[in-house]
Amino acid sequence: MPPLYHILGLNTSSYAVQTHQAWLQTGSIFSVLKAAVRQAMVSWHDWQGSLGSIFLFSLQPAAFGERLYALTPWIMLAVLLLPTFYFVQGGVRRLSGKWYHTLICAVPALFLSVQYPVAAVSSFFWWNGSVYYTFFYGLMLWLLGLCLRLWGGEGGKIRFLLRLVPALLLVVAVGWGNYPTALLTVLLLGLGAGAAWGTKKPKRLSVAFTVLFGLAVAALLVSALAPGNQVRQVDYNPDHPGPIVAILRSPLTAGMDLARWTDTKTLLAICLPLPLLAPLLKKCAWDFRRPLLVTLGSFLLFAAQNTPTLYAYGESGPQRLRNIVYYSFFLFFLGNAAYWLGWWQRRTERAEGRDAWRPLLSGSLAVLFAAVCGLGFARDTTAAQCVVDIYWGRAQQYLAEQQEREELLLAPGEENVVLEPFSDRPISLYLGDITMLPGDWTNHGMARFYEKESVVLSADYPERLQN
User: What residue segments make up the domains of the chain, in order of their start?
Assistant: First the structure.
């Protein structure tokens, strides 16, 4: 991880202007929250319907002090790691597994997610990009973890309510986040509600899942039908494809994702937990009778994450969106591998035997996985990118130049600020920059954030990264 520092440029977005000013003027958290709500409502009418996302955009750490922006990667890592463990543990408990089963399933998933995302800078280091996707993806996993525990039915009414109440809140939050995650949540909860009624689960559980599903649909509609979405659509792609075309193209995009991301390290990570999961799958009550149907259904769920962006933009989306599709890739893959293993064990009806070889096999796969990642893919990792930037001094130089910019932007009296371009752009941190044009949206956002008339570069960059 790079040393703690803040990032200006694109991160000082106009969403945080009101909250930043409220904090400087009053120092009151209540005033800041009011400003964030006001910004969310304005954007809902004029630009974007994702109320929860805009609310969090407005609360970026830099609104309370530029150097607090360094908290961004720690917040995003926590909201990815903890819900992933919670969700995986919920699934393992349905199989009567132990804590080490949770570890051996969750750790490979998290290692791949953290070290090999599509774009680490927009996964963890850029507040708006990461909070819009990584953060709400984590909330979805937390919600699904609660749903797994509700489904299991452990405990009495009090524990049921202690799980249902936060689930209700999370459903609304996820529905007001990014559209791929919100749509996937609607589909999963709809399947859960149908399964609860179809399998004659206790009535309170069937009603709970039906309410969760209804809330998810309502929250998504509030976000999707916002007037601001139409304004944004005109600016981005007024000739977007229709919903049928987007739905039909989604599986094709998902198929290309599977082909692109299924490599040696991924296959080893999938196989690593299976030896220890096999006894649990053999003893569980599921019959594993429909592997083809489960695989097709899970693939369509995986593909559904592409539909909103294909509909809005006619393409699979920016790198920050592809990050969360990649996060879900391993979990979908592992779930299918486990289901097929359970089906194969039921079909072969192998005799019970000693399982001492299973931990040895799993450990051997873990060693092989570490070796493959270390020898063949090490330089592709997030950690390697950060180490290179620090070792060659690129991160330190970037920090020094950021601090020079900060001094100019905070200096009183100068209303038209001219900044020098960065001399280097560390791969682990550089997202983009302002331009020579005062009217550019990035320039305008920075000028408003620091209460300047204009902010420009003395010379422009030839390109801006698309994250």
Answer: 9-64+413-457, 73-113+233-391, 149-225
